[in-house]
Amino acid sequence: MKKYILTGMIALMGTALFTSCGPSERKETADDEFTYEVDRFEDISVLKYRLPAFDQLTAGEKEFIYYLSEAALCGRDILWDQNFKYNLLIRKTIEAIIDTYGGDRESDEYRAFITYAKRVFFANGIHHHYSNDKFVPGFSEDYFAQLVSGSDVARLPLAGDQTVDELTSFLTPILFDPVLYAKKVDQTEGTDMITSSANNFYEGVTQAEVEEYYASIADPSDPRPVSWGLNSKVTKIDGKVTEIPWKSGGMYGPAIERIVLWLEKARDAALSETQKEELGLLIDYYRTADLGTWDDYNVMWAGNTGLSVDYINGFIETYGDPMGMKATWEAVVQYKDTEASKRTALITENAQWFEDHSPVDPQYRKEKVTGVAASVINVAMLGGDCYPASPLGINLPNSNWIRAEAGSKSVTLANITDAKDIVARGSGFMEEFAFDRAEIDRAVTYGSLSDALHTDMHECIGHASGKLAPGTDPNALKNYASPLEEMRADLFALYFMMDPKMAEIGLVPSDEPAKAQYDNYIRNGFLTQIVRIQPGKDIEQAHMRCRSAIAHWVYEKGKAENVIEVVKRDGKTFVRVNDYEKLRGLFGEMLKEVQRIKSEGDFAAGKEMIENYGVKIDQELHAEILARYAKLNLAPYSGFVNPMMITITDRNGRVKDVQIEYCSDYLGQMMEYGKKYSFLQAW
Length: 683
Ligand code: ZN
Fold this sequence. Notes:
Distance between the termini: 32 Å
Structural class: alpha+beta
Bound molecules: zinc ion
Number of helices: 26
Oligomer: single chain
Radius of gyration: 24 Å
C-alpha cells in the first residue's frame, strides 16, 4: 500500500509550509541554489529530487543502485500498456511527431499538442493519473491529422501495410471521442466495472465472468492463498475465460527480459547473501509467473531488513484494477537515511504496545505484531507506476498472510517529501484555507514533524495492525477494500498521535503536533482535497475517498457536541476543531468499526461507509473551494523527473563509480526514455 500526500503540494495537507524544525533539517544546505520545479502545465508541477549524500555511498552500493535503477526503468512500457491497450501506439505516434514534425512549431495549436503530450507522458497514458478520466486534447482533429501526415513516415508506428491516413483515422476517435474509453478505472456503483473501465487487464469478459473464474480457482479455506490474478490479463480463448501471464517469453516478455537482465547484474552485486538469494527468486518469478515463487520472494524480501540499499520491483499495487486483483508494474530504488530512520525505529520498537492499546475489538488485534520494519529512505530512481507521480510512503508486501507471518517493510521517501515541502513554502495556501492565525502558526511550527510522524505511523504500524477473523475472505470488500485499508492506517496514526505514549517515548514534545495533524486532516478531508476534482464529479481515488470518509464521519458523529464546526466567514467556508480530545475519541471509534469491517469482510457496511461519506461532494462548497484555490495559482498534482546516473567503468565493463546529474528537462527525459527503454510493440 502506498501513502500519497495531496500534492499541490504539502500545501494541500496544509503542514510543513515553512519548515523550521523536524525532519526536513536533514536536507543539505544548498537548497537555495537548487531549483526544484522543472516544468509546469495544466494541473501538474514537475519537480526534481536530490540524492543527499549519494557520493558517500560505497562503490559497491552505487554499483548495486545503478543496476537496480536500470531494471526500474526497463518496465516502463508495461505500465503504459496496462493502463490502456492503445497507449503505446499513441505514445510512439506522439514521439514521432515531436521528433520529426516538419511544420510550424511556434503555433498555438502546436503548443496545445505539446501540453497534451506532457499530460500523456505524466499519466503514462491518455487517462489522468489520478482522476482516471480521458484527457481532452486542446487541438482539433484536423490539426492532429496535419501533425501525423507532417511527420516522418518511417518513425510512425504503422501496423503492417497500414497507411498514414489509416493510422490517423484509427487514432482520432480514441483521442477525441469523449465517450469512447472515457475512464481508465470505473467503479461507479451498478456498472460492470470491467467492461466500463478502459484499462487493459481484461478484454472480452464481463465482471460476472471474472468473478466466477476466480471463485472457481481460489480456495477460500487456504490460510496462505497466493495473490490470484495479480500478474495476468484475463480474456477469452475459444469462448473460455483464460489468463495470459506476464512473464519472460509471454505477455510483456521483451520488457521483462530486460528487467531480468539488469536484475541478474544486481544479484551478482548484491550487498548480502540473503539479498542475492532474494533477487534470484524475483528473477525466477519473472521467468515463470509462478505466484508461489512470488510469495516465497516476498517472504524473503520482507525479512531482509536493515539494508543500506533496497528496492521495489514488480507487479505490486492493485489500485488500477476495479476488481483490486491485477497489479500495475512499478519500481523504486532507494538508500537509507540513517539519521531519520531513528524516528521510525522508535515507532517500530513500540509497535506491540500500540497494537495492544488500540481501540479495536481485542479479537481483531494481533497477538504478535511481526517485524514492522520501517525506515526513512532517499529515492535514487523511480519507475513504472511510481514515476513521475511518486508516493511519499510505501508499505509492502500487500499479501495479508505474508504480512501476518513474515511482517512487512515500510518506507518514508525523505527526499521526495523534502522537495515537495520546499516548493510548497510561501504558496499562500494556508492563509487562504486555515481557520485562523493560531492554526497556521501551529502548522508552521509542528507541521513538518507532524506530517512525517503521520506518514511513518500510517506505514509502520497502521497497515501492519489488526487481523482477519478466521475464514474471512481477504477479497470480500472488493472495490471498497483500498479506501477502507487506507482509512484503517490513517485512523491508527491519527488516534495514536495524541496518545501520551508519544511524548513518553520522545517522539513529540507535546500534543501540539497531533493537533496540527488533526486541523490539517479535517481541513483537507472536508475542504481542500476536492480542488483536485472537476465540478460535478465524484471522488474516485482510494486515498481521497479515505480522507473524505474519515472527515465527514467524525464531523457527523461529533455534531451534537460540536466537536468540529463549519464556520462561514465573508462568504468563505472554514472548518475548526473545537475539541481535540473528543475528536481523538471519534477517530478511535471509527478505527474500531473499520477494523471490524475488514476483519469480518462486512462488504455491506464497508460500502455504506464509503458511499455515504467518501464519494459525494457538496456542489456549492466545491465551486467555492475551486474558486478560492484558482486564485492561488498552484498545481494540484506534482511528480518528478529522475536523476541521470553517469557510470565510470573499468576495463572489463564493470561499474566502478556512479555520478549523479540532475535533469531539468521533463519532456527531454520522456523522449530519452522512449528511445532507451521501449521494448514493447505498439500493436
Ligand atoms: Zn497506505
